[in-house]
Every structure is written in structure tokens, then in C-alpha cells.
């Protein structure tokens, strides 16, 4: 699973997911990209499941870039534990995604394979997404 090696501060506040993406909103590496249309917390396991689906459906050829990284810790308390006693332990890491963020990029594959791979990968994600390409972006 993806997670940071070290952090200066172990636990974070929950925060708000306001506005749209300003950085990471354009294609940087590949010819096609999967762009978010909603806002959510993407867990490391959801990112990995989508990445595996994309690489499996591209067959041979095609390079995949993951453009999001789960760097926000989410804490939880054990079930049945009474309130108090401080903040809970870190349960998982998530990536904060806002509308317009590029989640994955692909290069070196045919458009039909890319579209099927992205549609199957988006079924594993909790937000609406759309496929974009270099030609549409210009």
C-alpha cells in the first residue's frame, strides 16, 4: 500500500475539501488521463485497485502514472471503546481529491484499450470521473 515514509506531525485535522484543483489538473506525462469530477478521500487500497485494473486491461504495452498519493492520515478508535483518552490511532492514509484532479495517466496504448481500462477502473473509485486526452486539452 502507498503511504508516506516519515511525517513531521503524525496526526492531521480532518479539514475541508473546498474549491477545485489548481495543481495537478493538466496532463503531464501521458496521452490520456482519468480526471475526477467530484471530491472525496481516496484510500490507498482504492488507488491500488484502480491501478491494477488499468494495467491488467492495457495488456502488454502502455505506461501508467499514478498522479495522486495518499499522504493524509485518518485516525479511528476501536469498536466498543469508550470516548476520551485522546485521538485514535492511524487507521489508513488517504489522498484528498477535488474536482479537476488527474488521478491516472496512460501513454503508449490504443484509445479503445485506454477507455475500457479507465471505465473499469472508475468503477473501483467512489467518485465520478471522465477520460481526457492531449488533443482535447489543447
TrEMBL record:
Domain of life: Bacteria
UniProt keyword annotations, A-Z: Ribonucleoprotein, Ribosomal protein, RNA-binding, rRNA-binding, tRNA-binding
A biological-process GO annotation: translation
Keyword rRNA-binding: yes
Record's signal peptide: none
GO CC annotation: ribonucleoprotein complex; ribosome
InterPro entries, sorted: Ribosomal_uL16, Ribosomal_uL16_bact-type, Ribosomal_uL16_CS, Ribosomal_uL16_dom, Ribosomal_uL16_sf
MF terms in GO: rRNA binding; structural constituent of ribosome; tRNA binding
NCBIfam families: rplP_bact
Family, per entry: Belongs to the universal ribosomal protein uL16 family.
Subunit composition and interactions: Part of the 50S ribosomal subunit.
UniProt function note: Binds 23S rRNA and is also seen to make contacts with the A and possibly P site tRNAs.
Protein name listed in UniProt: Large ribosomal subunit protein uL16
